[in-house]
Amino acid sequence: MSANISSPSSLHRESHIDVYLRVLSALMLRDMRSRFGGNYWGYLVQVLWPCAHLAIIVGAMSFRGMKSPMGDDAMVFVATGALPVLAFQYISREVMKGYMIHKPLTYFPQVKRFDTVVARILVEIINSFMGLMLVLLVLICFGSDPVPVDITTAITGYLASIALGIGIGTVNVGICSVFPGWALGYILVTLTTYITAGVYFMACYMPTEIYYYMKWNPATQLIEWVRLGYDPQLPIQIDYLYIFAWIFGSLTIGLLMERYIVRAQQ
Questions:
Q1: Residue 67 to residues 59, 63, 74, 75, 77: CA-CA distances in angstroms?
Q2: CB under 8 Å to 179, separation ≥6 — which residues?
Q3: What tens digit of pLDDT does each residue of 166-195 get?
Q4: What is d(CA 131, CA 70) in angstroms, rounded to the nearest whole number?
Q5: Which helix (H) or strand (E) holds 26?
Q6: What is the average per-residue pLDDT within 197-205?
Q7: Could you tell me which of 87, 81, 175, 177 has the C-alpha nearest to residue 124?
Q8: Contact 161, 222 (CB under 8 A)
Q9: Please, are residues 124 and 91 in contact by the beta-carbon 8 Å criterion?
Q10: Which H or E run contains 256?
């Protein structure tokens, strides 16, 4: 009979976990409701944005009479370039914004600053996959074939984009805790990264000298990683070690900054 009685320490541990999970769920729900007008319809707008982004680019390509340099489907070509970059940039930016928005909530003893970061990361991961599923559905509805030739390669490339967004996002949190103006400065960084990443063109078809410097941009290699899953015959050379160095390096730096900079201000 005594075997069925939980010890006080286990009860305390379970209650602590329950409180932490409730805090995370509350922060996530607040995140979803605080987008675009303070209701869940605003959250839907956030999920629909990748589709609008895709429609604008494809419309511009059609208007200018541009053909897809990868296969015959311009929608698939744009999607394979835009989705990994948007996943990386949205997560890295929104994690930073979530920390700044929820900062007043840390006056409650149950809410820690790192909790706001974790909650926003979880919300953005959900957003990324919902946006991906919605874009795939739109492509199917318009008669495109969004299924890659090598599904494993395409999926791992997209997951790497999400992981890099989390790593850079934690670094942004550390920077913003000291320099709040970085939230505006990072917009210029993401804009430059997006334009030079190769969303609208194939980086591997650029001159060798230009291609060499473009590959220093991790977003370029993430795009090529995903596109390689759709066309394994592309003359693409992906430096996986370089990408994982960015992912784990940025995450390590971000966690160290949270430990010694962000937490020191709490």
A1: 12, 11, 7, 10, 10
A2: none
A3: 999 999 998 988 888 898 899 999 999 888
A4: 23
A5: helix 8-33
A6: 88
A7: 87
A8: yes
A9: yes
A10: helix 240-257
Q: What does the block give as tokens for 213?
A: 């410097």
Amino acid at position 150, single letter: D
CB atoms within 10 A of CB 102: 20
84 and 129 Cβ atoms separated by less than 8 Å: no
**Closest listed residue to residue 162, CA positions, set 49, 229, 251:** 251
Q: What is the mean pLDDT of the chain?
A: 83
Tell me which residue has tokens 């680019």.
Answer: 57
Residues 196/211, Cβ–Cβ less than 8 Å: no
What integer is the mean pLDDT of 213-223?
93
Residue with tokens 């909650």: 119
Which pTM does this prediction carry?
0.86
d(CA 99, CA 3): 44
Which residues, including other chains, have CB under 8 Å from residue 177's CB and lie 6 or more apart?
Answer: 99, 257, 261, 262, 265
In 3D space, the residue among 135, 133, 116 whose CA is nearest the CA of residue 52 turns out to be 135
**How confident is the model over 54-70, as a mean pLDDT?**
73
Asked if residues 168 and 86 have their Cβ atoms less than 8 Å apart, the reply is no
Contact criterion met (CB below 8 Å) for 200 and 57 = yes
**What is residue 239's DSSP assignment?**
-
